[in-house]
Amino acid sequence: MCDPSLRASLSLQRSLVEQSHEFGVSIFGSDGLVQQTVVRRSMPNGGDGIAVASFETPAAATIENSFVDDSARAGIANFGAFVALSGTHLRCAAIAIAADPYDGMDFELEDRGNNRCGCPNAEDPCAASSVNLMPPSPPSSSD
Q1: Which of 54, 88, 122, 138 is the most exposed place for a label (fewest CB within 10 A)?
Q2: Chain-centre distance of CA 138, in angstroms?
């Protein structure tokens, strides 16, 4: 049984995540480090490459030297969390970076440099958009 009040920590390195149906990588109410990872083809029904959301407790993610490609919704979705990006390229997402407050918590995005966004090539500077995406459902204690 999962206790959602306990914080977890994710370290994902040198990985390939592809053809996910909701989120390629999700960090909810916890801390995460994603390094040298490729997340591609996140399909509809969520469709975010990397989703970071604060549920009851703050969430924080550092994403370094990674590549997010072909996300049906957002390359990176930030729901009331802290996200730091460096050396990360986001290509061909409906929204490169979506960031919105969630459940009374504001979002923070820290650009640590060398991030690129765009389609068909990730050549442009990245910028966050507040588009009021529907956040994911909070994890339940039975998950």
Answers
A1: 138
A2: 15
Q: Evaluate whether residue 69 is within a structural domain.
A: yes
Q: Which of 38, 24, 41 is nearest to 66 (CA)?
A: 38
Note whether 66 and 44 are within 8 A (CB): no
Sequential pLDDT tens for the chain (143 residues): 566 667 889 999 999 999 998 899 999 999 999 999 999 999 877 789 999 999 888 999 999 999 999 999 999 999 999 999 999 999 999 999 999 999 889 999 999 999 999 999 999 999 999 988 887 776 665 54
- The half-sphere exposure of 4 on its side-chain side, counting CA atoms within 13 A, is 17
Q: Is residue 1 part of a domain?
A: no
pTM (2 decimals)?
0.91
Residue 89 lies in a domain: yes
Contact 125, 89 (CB under 8 A): no
Of 43, 93, 88, 48, the residue nearest 70 (C-alpha) = 93
CB 136 within 8 A of CB 98: no
Distances (CA, A) of 5 to 11, 34, 59, 64, 139: 20, 22, 12, 27, 10
